[in-house]
Amino acid sequence: MKELVEVIAKALVKNPEQVNVSETNDNAGTVYELHVAPEDMGKIIGKQGRIAKAIRTVVKAAATRENKRVMVEIL
């Protein structure tokens, strides 16, 4: 899952070398924190959050296939 988030984010941003994904586990499942350069934040979030929602949807769909619970946070 971590690689999936990373590949999607790197394809969208202008500075792919500054994309960083960290993984933490809590009671609700696995949380992936996506860090990008400040100037790329708008590209990751998209208009009215559409791209961020799409990223979360794709990752949740992939996690469902593996019977896992995941969340993606964009920081």
UniProtKB/TrEMBL annotation:
The keyword Protein transport does not apply. InterPro entries: KH_dom-like_a/b, KH_sf_prok-type, KhpA. Keywords: Cell shape, Cell wall biogenesis/degradation, Chaperone, Cytoplasm, RNA-binding. Its main location: cytoplasm. It is found in: Cytoplasm. Pfam families: KH_KhpA-B (PF13083). CDD domains: KH-II_YlqC-like. It comes from the Bacteria. The keyword Cell wall biogenesis/degradation applies. A probable RNA chaperone. Forms a complex with KhpB which binds to cellular RNA and controls its expression. Plays a role in peptidoglycan (PG) homeostasis and cell length regulation. PANTHER family: RNA-BINDING PROTEIN KHPA (PTHR34654:SF1), UPF0109 PROTEIN SCO5592 (PTHR34654). Forms a complex with KhpB. Belongs to the KhpA RNA-binding protein family. This is RNA-binding protein KhpA. It comes from Sporomusa silvacetica DSM 10669.
